[in-house]
Write a structure and sequence with these properties.
Largest sheet: 8 strands, mixed
Radius of gyration: 20 Å
Distance between the termini: 75 Å
Strand content: 25-35%
Number of strands: 14
């Protein structure tokens, strides 16, 4: 009888744990992608500090490597900033470790002569050719300036995709202006495929997201329960990957369960719509 009760107890505990598991989180290795698919990953890496409060850039590197993304978009990337990230050039380190090219542009720039400037910003990594098209400081920030950067990537199959990254601010009025200015900034490349991604510090039903969604498609539009923050107990979705009408997202958008940062990374595969020419 005791053995039966013990077995039942184990079964009930297992059932409860399964029922409580957030199925929006993919805690396995990212799935295989088709040859024509392009994989993009967005990750606020919190300058390499994980949920345990420990800086460990190699945990970030391992997450990125296992995801096998063709395009990696990063927020909160330090460059010679401070001891919190070992005064390292994080984007260069990650790109070198992954065998990728990289583009970094700062939103925070602090003079530190005769040493290099202390910087925090956004980065884009890819094994393909990448060209910086421009960076714009938004008209309104908060305690920190906020920027958007756009780039042109020529994929190894010859296709072109414009990739933009931003990290919106902490006030609603600022985010509304940043959303509108994002659309203005990307208008000159919108005749080509465009990916826009970042930590937008806003939930899907908010005004800033409504502004962006009126122009671009949200890769997670049918997956609002795929929460991204905080990583140790996600309760809201504030990290996004958008594409214009020339981007076709696959139905495999997901988060990756990891405590390497205070956000969860998000991943999706896409293809580029064939031209009618």
């Amino acid at each position: 009888m005791k053995k039966i009760l013990s077995t039942l107890g184990i079964f009930l505990v297992s059932f409860i744990l399964y029922a409580c598991h957030d199925n929006s989180i993919d805690d396995t290795k990212t799935s295989e992608k088709n040859e024509e698919d392009i994989r993009v990953l967005l990750y606020n890496i919190h300058f390499g500090v994980g949920g345990d409060g420990i800086f460990n850039i190699d945990r970030i590197k391992d997450v990125l490597e296992n995801a096998e993304a063709d395009i990696i978009i990063l927020n909160e990337v330090d460059k010679f900033y401070s001891d919190r990230s070992n005064n390292m050039d994080m984007a260069k380190y990650l790109a070198d470790e992954l065998g990728m090219n990289h583009l970094f542009r700062a939103s925070i720039i602090i003079e530190n002569s005769p040493n290099p400037e202390r910087e925090v910003g956004n980065a884009i990594l890819t094994k393909s050719t990448i060209e910086h098209l421009g960076t714009r400081f938004f008209s309104e920030g908060d305690q920190w300036p906020r920027v958007i950067t756009k780039s042109k990537i020529k994929l190894q199959n010859g296709q072109i995709v414009n990739v933009a990254v931003s990290h919106f601010g902490l006030t609603e009025s600022g985010r509304i202006k940043q959303a509108n200015e994002t659309l203005e900034f990307l208008a000159d490349v919108d005749n080509e495929p465009v990916i826009f991604a970042g930590d937008l510090n806003a939930t899907p039903e908010s005004v800033p997201l409504e502004i962006i969604s009126n122009k671009y498609n949200d890769a997670f539009s049918t997956r609002n329960s795929f929460y991204t923050f905080p990583a140790n107990n996600p309760t809201k979705r504030i990290d996004y990957i958008f594409g214009n009408e020339k981007i076709i997202f696959k139905n495999n958008a997901h988060t990756i369960l990891t405590q390497a940062s205070d956000h969860l990374p998000i991943v999706v595969d896409f293809t580029i719509k064939k031209s009618n020419k």
